[in-house]
Specification:
Chain lengths: 565, 565
């Protein structure tokens, strides 16, 4: 019998009433608002009201550098959350809201998989409670206000060539990357070149993910820089009198969404900032609430540990003031084999035959990446746990190699079969995480906020990425100088680089050394609260493929969704 | 003491639990889904499940040709709904969902006003349950699929110069009216000129408003024409394999939203198609449900009776198969005076001094418009009731003139002070409507679907608008011929003309005669199900003014919204 599809498994789930899930989390009923039958929102009042509840152990789920297929980080996050229940512990899971564009494009949804899923997956993957759309609206309101300001006479003296604020849509739409607006007659606005990004790439999304409350969000939105005057001075959303209305548009979106896993583990779904040019982490407020709702809060960070975990530590925890107690590094046999450099894995194509054969030596050959990512966790004072995300075709001999590498590095390690077995398959992992979290936390930020921007960039590049140093383009140098002058020098760094290598070159696998990080350009998300150096081509608006997922999504004769994965 | 603001009145409202409102409507609990505390959605299963419930009297609220300020149609709709309760009747109100763009722009919200409002007004005016955003997503998915089709090789042979499908956003953003997309490199799509409309102008919105169920919606979306091949053949959403995914994106948006008035009268809020290029009516499904939930269903149609009511009769009722029992014509002293042609009323400027003075003769001088609109109701076999929407500065002598004109025409008439007095002020109106609805309905469509397109256009122009005839541009002639050839000839007509005159010239007040309707262009919303001749400049993407409402909307120190009206 074939293994059932994610959708088939999800359809068979026995969901608990969502108010019961929220009740088990200890959330006060007066802060809960239902959205449909299976989702609730929880008001931010929970942060204060639960301040005396015992604090959960704070567990980050990260990964080694993934292949283009991804290594099952969300699935492991969900599986681990379910696994704790089998040990008699109460756990809550925190994940990002998936972007709808890729769901309709190539990628499929982001609800986990197999017997470790967040349900109902169709709600998670499509619209959910509309938070993503609220971000789109708030972002595009500011864009309309910018162009209206130009149209009405440009009293602030915006340099039309230095407007950095684009528009967003939650859609994979390559044709909108580069556009000219304001064509037509004089009444149709000022002509200029701009473009659309996907909503996940919006600074408003990043601000929402990093805010600690509504008043803080209002301030962050006011600080958003939309462009510069001809004199080089930043112009903000506050100066355009738009931050108040943007905040009003986000007053529901700021509340985390409560869902559940297939095994009724509570899940907080909130925000979905891009992993390349933004933090790739779910929201601070969801974590602050989740930390008071059980014994463990399992939260996920996007991409490998050099990307998501580094930002989790140095941006998200810097804002929240919370220290993680353990970090899981998801590793797979195929990813370690890929880091040997012997195989080429392309999304949408079958895996190479010889990668699927039993070959522990290939796993060994890719060990450097795992070692370096363990080190990256440990340099922040956090206990690493290697989670071997087991695939049906894996060989025990290959798992043994991963175990050996982890143990050589002094890291805990466990094989997890949560995809096939649900929480029961994650019990060994949950035990290892529980042990790691018992160790005294020695969490430390990698750099102080007060360090100059270049020093912060160089610290991340050399210590986390293993680069020899950093080279800046002339433009990047000018931008860094300008940001320091404008008072943005205290912001942390969110490095925009490929997630397919620890380096900035996606073709360099393992743990590359002897290279220099090239910073082509530097941008500032002043409202969200970080500076992001661009190290490579960063695509902020995906396209659709030759056969988009949307062509297969439909309703069957019973009105049930088909084709969503 | 000053009359309190709409927001102050709304804040003081004693809302009933929304499930109690739904319960009073007799809606089965298993079809209800809460969205937050004060809104529910009702599943379309209600149409079948309530088929044996007594049918309500079906009351349309329309108006004489309004001034640019609007004459209080929504306020009257809400007030009348409230008024029935004072007579011991159960009424449900059906209105459109307001577009967020104008709420953030110049217009303010659309929740009614004074003591006749839908509450909570901030939910109605901002996002509501996300239906508008779902329409945006479904619409723009199709746009992305069109441009992706071009990018992937254009197998269907779309003529790039004949693509009619644009993109939409629920935002007032003039800079997006005319744009060039697909700039950049080859990977960034095919370069072509296009633009954005406001979401209310989306054909998807019109289709959602006119559909009778999910399977019907799936078919309508499949029929949407996105453009033409170089050979002149229409290309549809079905051919682009996108209609299924669009329907999936709309599977929650198809369910009407339940809210309440200040006096706890149930309100169905659903869909907001534009009043100029689309029907300007709330949804068929909301009315089909609402007709089984009480003694009266009071439903509103946008603009004057020549526009909204004509489309309500000939498009909406043609689809639903339901016959209205009475139609209210909202009239105001200021609008009748304006139809005298002696005054110039401009939105955002104070009313002319002499318009505010007592002058029954000026009211008399504007009587032709009211007479013609009464006739327009009656030619559909429906009993008209003139509602004099009383303003605080009105004079009894002026109300008496309106009463006299209506009675001369054999129409019922009532003064309504619902704005100041709530439902108690609408009791006289409710009594008149109840009487009118007791008359045997002789509802008839103005033209059969089988008539040729030109005949339908000419019937509306001559009989409803009072034109001598219709003139077609050469382009309009070609388009009409093409539509007949393509099999779209059976569709009803949705005339796109100004709402500020019964004619196509906004400067012609009263009931103009001796003119010809110029049809410049003809378009087809094949999915929504109508052909729309363009008779004048139709703006489908508003702009922001010098001082947009968004600049005044904010949160106060207690987190309460301010500046929303």
């Amino acid at each position: 019998m074939a293994f059932p599809s994610d959708l088939e498994i999800a359809r068979g789930a026995k969901l608990k009433p969502i108010q019961d899930i929220a009740g088990e989390m200890g959330l006060p009923a007066h802060l809960l608002e239902p959205y449909g039958r299976d989702v609730m929102k929880v008001g931010l009042g929970a942060i204060d009201e639960l301040v005396d509840a015992p604090r959960a152990k704070y567990v980050l789920v990260s990964a080694i550098t993934p292949t283009p297929l991804g290594e099952g980080k969300t699935t492991t996050t969900v599986g681990l959350g379910q696994g704790f229940k089998h040990l008699g512990h109460r756990a809550t899971v925190a994940i990002r809201q998936p972007s709808m564009g890729p769901t309709l494009g190539i990628k499929g949804g982001a609800a986990g998989g197999g017997y470790s899923q967040v349900v109902p997956m169709e709600l998670l993957n499509l619209h959910l409670t509309g938070d993503m759309h609220a971000v789109t609206a708030a972002h595009n309101l500011l864009a309309a206000m910018v162009d209206n300001h130009l149209h009405q006479g440009n009293a602030l003296g915006l340099d039309v060539g230095e407007i950095t604020w684009r528009r967003v849509l939650d859609m994979n739409d390559r044709s909108l990357r580069n556009i000219v607006v304001g064509l037509g007659a004089k009444a149709d606005g000022v002509t200029r070149q701009t473009g659309f990004d996907i909503t996940a790439a919006s600074e408003v999304m990043a601000a929402l993910a990093l805010t600690t409350g509504l008043a803080d969000l209002r301030e962050r939105l006011g600080r958003i820089v939309v462009g510069y005057t001809t004199g080089g001075e930043p112009v903000t959303a506050e100066q355009l009198d738009t931050a108040g209305a943007m905040t009003v548009l986000l007053r529901e979106a700021i509340k985390p969404n409560i869902m559940q896993t297939l095994e009724n583990t509570p899940v907080l779904v909130h925000c979905g900032p891009f992993g390349n040019i933004a933090t790739g982490n779910s929201s601070v407020v969801a974590d602050l609430i989740g930390l008071r709702t059980g014994d463990y809060l399992v939260t996920e960070a996007g991409f490998g540990a050099d990307m998501g975990a580094e930002r989790f530590f140095n941006i998200k925890c810097r804002v929240s003031g919370e220290a993680p107690d353990a970090a899981v590094l998801v590793a797979t046999v195929r990813a370690l084999k890929a880091h040997s450099g012997k195989f080429r894995i392309v999304a949408g194509r079958p895996l190479p035959e010889d990668l699927l054969a039993e070959n522990p030596d290939d796993v060994h050959a890719g060990a450097a990446n795992l070692r370096k990512q363990i080190e990256n966790i440990r340099m922040h004072g956090v206990s690493p746990v290697v989670a071997i995300n087991a695939f049906p075709g894996d060989f025990a001999s290959e798992h043994a190699v991963i175990r050996e590498i982890a143990e050589e590095m002094g890291a805990r390690v466990a094989v997890s079969t949560h995809f096939s077995d649900g929480g029961a398959g994650a019990v060994e992992l949950a035990e290892a995480v529980a042990e790691a979290a018992e160790e005294k936390s020695e969490f430390q930020l990698l750099y102080p906020s007060s360090a100059p921007l270049r020093e912060k960039i160089e610290t991340i590049a050399t210590r986390v990425y293993g680069a020899d140093g950093v080279s800046y383009s002339p433009a990047a140098r000018r931008q860094l100088d300008r940001f320091e002058r404008n008072g943005f020098g205290e912001l942390p760094i969110c490095m925009a680089k490929t997630h397919l290598s620890i380096s900035s070159d996606p073709s360099l696998l393992g743990a590359p050394t002897g290279w220099t990080l090239p910073v082509r350009e530097v941008r500032a998300s002043v409202g969200a609260g970080f500076v992001y150096p661009i190290c490579g081509d960063m695509r902020t608006m995906p396209g659709l493929g030759a056969s988009p997922a949307a062509t297969r999504i439909d309703l069957d004769a019973d009105g049930e969704i088909v084709g969503l994965s």
